[in-house]
Structures are given as C-alpha cells and as structure tokens.
User: Fold this.
Amino acid sequence: MSSITDTEVPLTAEGYTYHLHCDAEHLADNIILVGDPGRVDLVAAFLAPVDYRQTHREINVVTGYYHQKKITVISTGMGTDNVEIILNEIHILKEFDAKLKRWKEKTEAVRIVRLGTCGSPSSTVKVGDLAVTAYAVGLDNTCQYYNRQHTPSELVQRLTAAVQQKTSLKHIPLYGAAASVPLRAALIAAMETYNHQHKENTVGYVEGITCSASGFYGCQGRAVGRLAPHLAAPDLVEELSHVAVEDEQPQQVWRVINLEMESSALCFLSSLLGYQACSVCVVLAARHHTHDQSESVFLSEAEKELKLNAAAEIILRTLSAGES
Assistant:
C-alpha cells in the first residue's frame, strides 16, 4: 500500500483512508455502525452478496446488499473519540475527490444508524427494549472541539441544560444534538411492521434522550473498589432518571432512556455534515435502583443475540426502503 503524504486528509494513492482502510467505491450511502468488531458479522449475515470485506485495528468493514440496496457495516470500537474518526473518514470518502485532491461541491445523501447496546437509568424502560435516540447529550468532550454553524434548537438547548442542572456534572461542559427526524420515524415504522409480522417475538421500543459518556465505569457512575470514593458523580444514574423536558410540538415529555458511549458524536457530527443519523440500542442493563425484582436486571447472552438480530433486521429494512 502506498505511503500517505497529506496529514490533513490522510489518503493512500489507492484512495484508502488512514483508519477505515476503505475507498469511496466500497462505501455505501447507507451505513450501519456497531461498536463491537465481532458484531459486524452479525449484521453482514443478512447481506447477499458481500463484495467488500476489510479489517484494520478494531475497525471491520463489510459492504454488501440487502434487497438490492448497497449497505456498509463498520465497527467503530468503543467511545465517541472513535466515532469522530469514523465520521471524518466517511466524510472524506464521500466528499473528497482523491484524484483531483479537492472537495466536491455536492454533498452525498448519507444515512447512518448505530446498532449498539446500553444501560437505562429509567424505571419505565425494560431490559431487552430497543432504545431509539431522538436527542443525544454528550457527557464527553469529543465534540467540544467543533463549533456549530448555527445555534442549536431551543429544545436541544433545554435538554442539554436539564441534564447539566439535574446532575452532578455542572462543572463539565455538555453538548446536545438531535437525531434525524425522518430516519427515526422510518425506524419506528419498521419496528411496527416487524412486530406485526412477528407476533410471537415482538420487540419493545422507546424513544427519548440518549446520554453518551466518555467511559464505562466512573463516567457512568459505576462505583468500583477503591476508586468508588473518588467519583465526581456517584449518583449520576439516579440523577439522569429525573430529567424531564416538555416539548409542545408534539405534546410530550422527553426523558433520558439510555446511557452509552457513542451516539452524541454520531448525531452531533452528522448534523454538521447534513447526514441523517440515529441510534438503536438494545437495553442490556437496568441501571436504576427501583427495578422490579421479578424482572431481569441484565439481559442474558441468548436474549441479547435475539434482540440484536431483530434490531439489525429492522435497521436494514429501514435503510433498504429509503431513497438514497
């Protein structure tokens, strides 16, 4: 593989980006992101034929077809910092002409859905439900390195402020972003269709606020051993369960439905680029302290695989039915 000469837009002579090891030809307009590299094969099992497969570090890439629609599945690894790398390199592959060494004027129609797992601070969200991101609030600092071109909507500002005011994170700057409304609506419609067709094995789902942390343990309020007394926000999960923001159009109250480590960067950067993005996460753990003792607090591995497969099929149906 040829060496890279441009440190700002790192591409090889073959047109491969530095981390993704994929060229523009093999990157579809419809993309599924997963954190776990092993989860790429779970989604790829639905694709036929598969015409591209590549592995580099923790990033696995598979491109194939679902009902004649070209789909790319990419593993990001864990964290918003990794998502930032992948979103930048998707942007490069979609909008930078590697031969002419210049940016294109026309933005490609790109849709990205994250398929992930999460915990929930809400007592109304069940283990095994699919958490669909309507809004994402970043408890991390990844997108603090980017300035918005436009002021976020009044609702996004209120959601972000509510998370900050209701939690022990008042000393940490937060940021918020909305998921794509059309893409989210299409995902919900696909879930309804799936449930109608699978009456014996339906999936529960909930829409709401996703909070993305920069780590798994202390950053999500997990008290572990001798590090427990040092947590800055030991009651974070309980505090997030009390966040409630009214939205007049439509008339509803938005609550925090899940806590994970990727969606804030996905939604924020996609909004800057004009890409449609949303997240669908299987709720693996009930993080709240008021859970029904008759229900499982953690999803079994067998149930986890079933729910991930159902979510993958729902996302693929959504992307294959779209215009792009």
